Amino acid sequence: MDRFRHSIPTKDVRPRELDSTDEKIIAILARDGRTTNADLAAALDVAPSTAHARTRSLVDRGILTGFHASVDYQRLGRGLQAMIGVVLRPGARHDSIVAFADEVRRLPQVLQLFFVGGADDFLVHIAVENASEVREFVVNHLSTQQSVATTRTSIVFEYHRNAVAAPFR
Amino acid sequence: MDRFRHSIPTKDVRPRELDSTDEKIIAILARDGRTTNADLAAALDVAPSTAHARTRSLVDRGILTGFHASVDYQRLGRGLQAMIGVVLRPGARHDSIVAFADEVRRLPQVLQLFFVGGADDFLVHIAVENASEVREFVVNHLSTQQSVATTRTSIVFEYHRNAVAAPFR
DNA sequence: ACTGAAAGAAGCTAACT
DNA sequence: AGTTAGCTTCTTTCAGT
């Protein structure tokens, strides 16, 4: 029992060489993370043990960071997604920003949190039940915060995903 | 061999009742999609066959839509992520917008594509190698397009993810 | 609906090329 | 690095509560 469980990736971020086999593994597992090793090997035209070693290496090197079930929030009664751009107050202290962001990203409504440079300071992607919950989220968790200057909410009408990116700091 | 592979979800979007066991399964598999059924059963304190039936039901009902490996793009030499807000021309025809969006979302740089209502018409989340590739992406695939009025690029400094949302239209 | 047991499949490891 | 082979573990089914 192991199925490529959490190892400790190094901080070495140099892109090592990946051959086409590695790239195929990444592509296949990004599309279907429960592809069996046997199927993977067949698709790559190598022995199962080879596929196994390659995949483990990708996990060990921290290139594949995990496997996650994708959830249809519509069917969970959270059919409304929004992207909220947040602009911070110019004078906001760095550690209060960090504390605030740390709190926001743990909220159950939050799917993703982007720290960005540009017009906004960060973007919050949420999934909730209805429009009033969007408003409630913005009021309760964003606009009343000390560090927040303004927010700008956009309803998400369509959403497409090609890949699942690993979180980073 | 099956491990909950793609079934055909109905279009019934009514949120059916989920008990706490279902919610735990969703939470566990969202965090680690390769949790073995045996471990899942242990965590839920039910028999493996029960955990199995519950999980299958969640997949069959289309609540869990798939399993995906998460990729560290930094280690793949694509250490720069950006979020690009796109505003369309007021006169842009609906089908040309659809065709354009369809093309954009298939580009290998694109991680996610959001159709939104608000200041922007959509948001494109990309991962590329460096700043000049961001520019290249915007120039080649966005700003030169007929339907596009303006774009606004924000570099992503930090990224956090709580969940993987299923794509939707 | 949940359980337990049995059978089949897959993962994992180690020795060899 | 890749392969072959063998052991272990998990998934999956089904008959029985």
Automatic annotation (TrEMBL), chains A, B:
The keyword Transcription regulation applies. The lineage of its organism: Bacteria, Bacillati, Actinomycetota, Actinomycetes, Micrococcales. Residues 18-79 form the HTH asnC-type domain. One of its GO terms (cellular component) is cytosol. PROSITE patterns: HTH_ASNC_2. It holds the Pfam family AsnC_trans_reg. This is AsnC family transcriptional regulator. One of its GO terms (molecular function) is sequence-specific DNA binding. SMART domains: HTH_ASNC (SM00344). Keywords: DNA-binding, Transcription, Transcription regulation. GO terms for biological process: response to amino acid. It comes from Microbacterium album.
